[in-house]
Amino acid sequence: QGQGFEALRVMLSEVLINQSLGSTYFEQLVQPTFDLAEPFIKQQVEQGMFREMDSALILRFISGSFLGLTLLRLMGDPKLIEQWDNLPDLLTDILLDGLAANGDNSSSSSK
């Protein structure tokens, strides 16, 4: 799975086991990332690119999606390992266009 994934496996296990380290990781890395990205999400809402929603929750949804997929890969999900390079396009389509087959969304690059 590569050295990067092994390092991530160790880091995630440590931040989950060690509450103090987990809090520090959240406060020094995760929260500043949210703080940096939230104005962008708000701007997209204001410009009508995104629906009116809680920007903090949008960020957590996106972050949770990536984290969950990464955890599944670390656990050895063969489908994710096989299709890993296709995930960015799939996630972009789902995030921007949703899952509805009859949606009238035109923001995806695949259309």
Strand content is under 5%
Q: Total helix count?
A: 5
Helical proportion?
over 70%
> Largest sheet at a glance?
none
The whole-number mean of residue pLDDT values reads 87
Distance between the termini: 32 Å
The number of distinct β-strands equals 0
Judged by helices, strands and strand pairing, the structural class is mainly alpha
- Following the backbone from N to C, one meets helices and strands in this order, namely HHHHH
- Principal-axes geometry comes out as flat
Uncertain runs are 106-111
Radius of gyration: 16 Å
Characterization of this structure:
It contains five helices and no strands. It is an all-alpha fold and 111 residues long. Helix 1 (3-17) packs across helix 2 (19-46) and helix 2 packs across helix 3 (55-74). The longest helix is centred in the first third of the chain and has 28 residues, at 19-46. The radius of gyration is 16 Å and the shape is flat. It starts with a helix and ends in a 14-residue tail after the last helix. Residues 106-111 have low confidence and may be disordered.
Strand and helix layout:
Elements: H1 3-17, H2 19-46, H3 55-74, H4 78-83, H5 87-97
Helix pairs in contact: 1-2, 2-3
